[in-house]
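Course assignment 3, question 2. Fill in each field.
Student: A.L.
Task: Predict the tertiary structure for the chain below.
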Amino acid sequence: MIRKEEVYKIGIFNKPHGIHGELLFTFTDDIFDQVEAEYLICPMDGILVPFFLEEYRFRSESTALVKLEGVDSAEQARTFTNVDVYFPIKHAEEVERENLSWNFFTGFRMEEIHHGHIGEVVDVDTSTINTLFVVDYKGEELLIPAQEDFIVEIDQKHKVITMDLPEGLLALDDTEEV
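Answer field:
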């Protein structure tokens, strides 16, 4: 059985394309094209299920048409409409750190060299020019810049990011904002 902590979200299936079971896939991470993974993972009926890739082709920098094995009609493909797509962390670890997307770090524990444990990265905000880690700090949402200059170490095995943030960026004692 695949557990949530063994995967990370890389996109969403939008809708069927054509009549042969292809799906329009909007992705935030093209990791599936960088490693020899044969499957993508989707939540179905409350469990994470692997679906083997038959073929795919890119339509743009963030979309692809995907054909899954056993999905051979538009009707079958419709069951995947607006379904999140995940990728196994174990395969992503084969990729050099520089080539990982920021979304890979969702679920990592964040440490800061002066403040210690800050919280868990629960999301990554890429909606602006500056990518931000969304960190759960004692039930509050902290936004921390995802800049390589601030990253001291990444321990993929233990899922820990150690940061050295500029003084004043974290106001942990006063307000819960960055």
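Instructor remarks: The first helix runs from residue 31 to 34. Confidence is low (pLDDT under 50) at residues 174-178.
Grade: pending
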